[in-house]
Amino acid sequence: MNIVIVESPAKAKTINKYLGSDYQVLASYGHVRDLPPKDGSVKPDEDFAMSWQVDSKSQKRLSEIANAVKDADRLILATDPDREGEAISWHVLEVLQKKRVLKDKQVQRVVFNAITKSAILEAMANPRELDTPLVDAYLARRALDYLVGFTLSPVLWRKLPGARSAGRVQSVALRLICDREMEIEVFKPQEYWSILANLKTPKGDPFQASVTGFDGKKIGRLDIGSEAEATAIKTMLTSASYTVDSVASKPTKRNPAPPFTTSTLQQEASRKLGFAASRTMQVAQRLYEGIAIGGETSGLITYMRTDGVQIAGEAISAARKVIGKDFGDNYVPEKPRFYSTKAKNAQEAHEAIRPTDLFRRPKDVARFLDPDQAKLYELIWKRTMASQMESAILERTTIDITASGAAKKAALRATGSVVRFDGFFALYQEGRDDDEDEDSKRLPAVDDGASLTLGSVDGKAEPIEAAQHFTTPPPRYTEASLVKKMEELGIGRPSTYASTLQTLRDRDYVELEKKQLVPQDKGRIVTAFLESFFDRYIEYDFTASLEEQLDKISAGELSWLDVLRAFWKDFSGAVDDIKDLRVAQVIDALNDLLAPHIFPDKGDGTDPRACPSCSDGRLSLKVSRFGAFIGCSNYPECSYTRQLAKSGDGEDEAAEGPKILGQDPETGLDVSLRNGRFGPYVQLGEEAKPKRASLPKGWSAPDMDLEKALQLLSLPREVGPHPEDGKMISAGIGRYGPFVLHDGTYANLSSPDEVFSVGINRAVDALAEKRAKGGRGRGTPAALKELGDHPEEGGAITVRDGRYGPYVNHGKINATLPKGTDPMTVTMEQALELIAAKASKGGVKKKAAPKKAAAKKPAAKKATTKKTAAKAKVDSSSEEVPWDDAS
């Protein structure tokens, strides 16, 4: 029997059909070991020794694999054909060697770029040894990511309370986004004018020409800077005569783009299909692993993590045949097309992403796929086919014109192009990040020396159009344009782009708004901190250089330990250099670096950092465990606070001081709109402890009026007595949103507006539903599911539903379930894994065991207790594991 190891069960099922009864294909379900998420898993002092941990799920699967290997003749490692795939094979091999089940069994490594019968059988016929340099590159990358995350993140926690974590690749991607936002904020629009002449040929055919020169001087796009200049040129052109100086037409070729790499697929799927990078990779993974078509499961595309742009010879031949059949022989180029990549640090070990069978047209497989799969397959098929089609032939025409006035002359030019042969345009055109269509403008036929007249085609437009414009700042990055930029700079690798973008969003460092990546204040502060004190490690060139070193390790040209030693020597020194920095010094640096964002110029010459509430206070960045805000240097005498910066849409209207909305009819006190560190709120009066209410989600400061403010200040509202026990039900808005409350039980409402209208029947239903789910107020929630006693420590393990979502509980340890997990499907195995992980992060303080000699050294015991408490305080502030780029 031959045992074959792959990553996924879907892949295993497909491959098992191809290999027959002499083979048993087992899935590892991805990585079987990882570095424990705690400090000390990589040991620089022990030449970067790594402590690997097998989780409970993987332990069970490895036991199954080990039992199967015991009775096998041969072990075949058939994981993915990239660095991660090589690493998984290495981990499996290491574990099996420790279990001593291999003995003298033959171990082989096979790789294939597509899950088709021919590709699998060919791979099995050509096994190789494990690629040690590729494994070394994985170990180096894993260690680097771990060391950066677990060294930088604690520094962040100490110097910037409320900050979360930092990572090697994500921090650089975040810097790109933040740098672009800073460019936008400091951008000063420049006024310019464009002038177009609506002209007609002697035959009456209309077209437009733009001014390119006036009075002997060339005019560029931004050279007409005022209305006066534009008016002078427009006046001259209105009475001028027009003559064609020259007409030049020349054919040009537009060549097709190469087949998809990982990054270009993510970019194009974002532009054309609206897919996030993570969604693109999920769908592509399914197409690669196999879809059942006509009773047979087969992979529809080749491996989707690649930066190569070449495709196999047989695929080129198939493409040329399909092109000839579907479009005609004139769409088949004389010679096949071959491509090479221009991306920095690209590795072309694998084929580009292409269909495994180009005769399998999108319309033939659409009924077997879900909508997203069908769309992505069609995109990949069209791109691959177009890459082997004939070029498009365009004719570009340029008409140069002279306008002669009484004393001055002007030069004008009209340009356009016509598609003479559509070539690959017949099937596919690459998406663009703008809306320009330079091939759609067609010019009429006109001869040299011809006289032209002014006049528009419909008589509505002026003969001479002068329009004012302003330059615009560079656009924010989209996921597509950020991936493109990272690839150009050589930052990250195909397998990391999607997870990098997702991590930035999960950490609340960026938000996706109208497909644009907008940095949040958390992300900007972390970036500013790293730029101030660890600038070298988030430089684009440094990160790209490190990627080059990792590539050289893959090629066997560098020692992975030498790379780690050199990096760690400088990096650990940089960390040591800022350990003694005071938080005040950090804040001063961030105030300077973030000044355009947090202290924008008011435009009236006044100091943007002057406190609007007191006479001599200075505004400064403040940090707390809840995040950052702007406060006055005269605190506590002056309690002025606001959010970091105005949002630009009026949301921070109250930032510069209270806005009186009116008077409360009952008390006569002023009702004001204000802004604090947690956002806008309304306040009644000016007493020492006035009544306040924050604006709920969905309510904006510009829309606030006296009526709405009084509604908020009137909360909580009594809904009525509960029909069962007569106790009052109230409605209000808390930090977790709108709710109804009865006898300690809180039930969420759908919107803040419902708080003011909810009736007794709706409230009773909501409370009953919450109690049915186990909700019992702010105390310990009732158990949703009892899993049994802890096998080692004893005590019940339960699944509960808390204010932050479902979690597993054992004693004093509460471990949140991963997002999307159904609490009713959680197993004891999963619960033990989550509880162990939480405990390793300091999730609970354990009482020290009593010591016989404790009374002899009370001073030492007290000092130790203080130290332990301090450590626990630092650990609890993190709230999560530091960034780790490989996770």
Automatic annotation (TrEMBL):
Ranges for domain Toprim: 1-111
Classification via SMART domains: TOP1Ac, TOP1Bc, TOPRIM
InterPro entries per the UniProt record, alphabetical: Topo_IA (IPR000380), Topo_IA_2 (IPR003601), Topo_IA_AS (IPR023406), Topo_IA_cen (IPR013497), Topo_IA_cen_sub1 (IPR013824), Topo_IA_cen_sub2 (IPR013825), Topo_IA_cen_sub3 (IPR013826), Topo_IA_core_domain (IPR023405)
Region (Disordered): 771-801, 839-887
Biased composition (Basic residues): 843-870
Gene it is expressed from: topA
Site keyed Interaction with DNA: positions: H31, R141, R142, D145, W157, R305, R507
Pfam families reported in the protein's UniProt record: Topoisom_bac, Toprim, Toprim_C_rpt, Zn_ribbon_Top1
Function: Releases the supercoiling and torsional tension of DNA, which is introduced during the DNA replication and transcription, by transiently cleaving and rejoining one strand of the DNA duplex. Introduces a single-strand break via transesterification at a target site in duplex DNA. The scissile phosphodiester is attacked by the catalytic tyrosine of the enzyme, resulting in the formation of a DNA-(5'-phosphotyrosyl)-enzyme intermediate and the expulsion of a 3'-OH DNA strand. The free DNA strand then undergoes passage around the unbroken strand, thus removing DNA supercoils.
EC number(s) given by UniProt: 5.6.2.1
GO cellular component, as recorded: chromosome
Reaction equation(s) it catalyzes: ATP-independent breakage of single-stranded DNA, followed by passage and rejoining
Region feature Interaction with DNA, mapped onto this chain: 165-170
Protein name (record): DNA topoisomerase 1
